[in-house]
Please model this.
Amino acid sequence: MNPDLDRLQPYPFQKLAALKQGITPPAHLSPIPLSIGEPAHAPPEIALQALQASLAGLGRYPMTRGGLELRQAIRNWAVRRFQLPSASLDPERQVLPVNGTREALFALAQCVVDRTRSNPLVMMPNPFYQIYEGAALLAGARPFFMNLEADQGFLPNLDAISEDQWQDCQLLYICNPGNPSGTVMDEAFMQRLLTLAHAHDFIIAADECYSEIHFTDTAPPPGMLGAAVRAGYTDFERVVVFHSLSKRSNLPGLRSGFVAGDARLLEHFHQYRTYHGCAMAPPAQAASIAAWNDESHVQENRRLYTRKFDAVLPILNGVLEVQRPDAGFYLWAHTPVDDDTFARELFAREHVTVLPGSYLSRSTATGNPGQGRVRMALVAPLEDCIAAAHRIRRYLE
Model:
């Protein structure tokens, strides 16, 4: 067996299941899960109709690169969304559909990390999406954790990273808007990362899967593609971005997203994926085209999440240290006791499941930045989110 498999840690939800084991919550209270970020709003009807109308496409092998119509739809959406020049993003060379960004975020590291170089580092936020860590380990690299602390606005402290560490970095994962904090990087911060990438020859993998869940249509979260263009990097060298229909369009089961950016990098990534056998099924492509071409369902999705935050936060005010995020559907709450005790007792007393923050992060020389926090995903129906907030308040009081 690949010995690097032994370096993988249990997934957060495995730890959560172990934490809850042996506990019998009150039978008269219905379970309310706030632990998993699985969208529960209705998928857009136009995507479902396109999927059903294209089932005959299952009778042929799809291309790894996807159909041109899909790549053009993705390209047109990205140009509109991030205010790119009209000639940006060649759909033939700079756009690659993927079967959900999870597999692509993992596979990128296997493609780009040179394990023959001494001390290859893959940098990532801490807390983080655990796929980043697993990708680094199985690529033969060492994960380097950039702690995200409240006093830094839940952004990495770039000045705390040494020149030698930047020099060893081969791949940098960022998550913007952040999971779990919901913090949004501005373009100036992203352009500073771009300067570092060009100075030290590493690749930026920008996970932007929560970018379409925000609370103001007048100032949506910026993206790395726009930051690169406005910094003069019009060819997106050393940059790839990841977007998904899972959160934006409530289509997690479709497994549809895309990678876009550096043409030279995507050429190699396409070759890797061809061997890996990662082609998107034609019906999924048809549904994806319909979803990327429509914004009305995305606006309705944002309205539903905004209602949840507007309802839940006043209930929690005064009993729990928590703020509205810049974007995304998570609350990143500071707990009055250690996070696993909070999660265990809340489940035992109120039948509400939240995820301990320490399960999403790693201990470093300066501590575990997830300790003393819990992540709560407001994906349940509005009435359940309100009920959960009242139960949390009752537990705390």
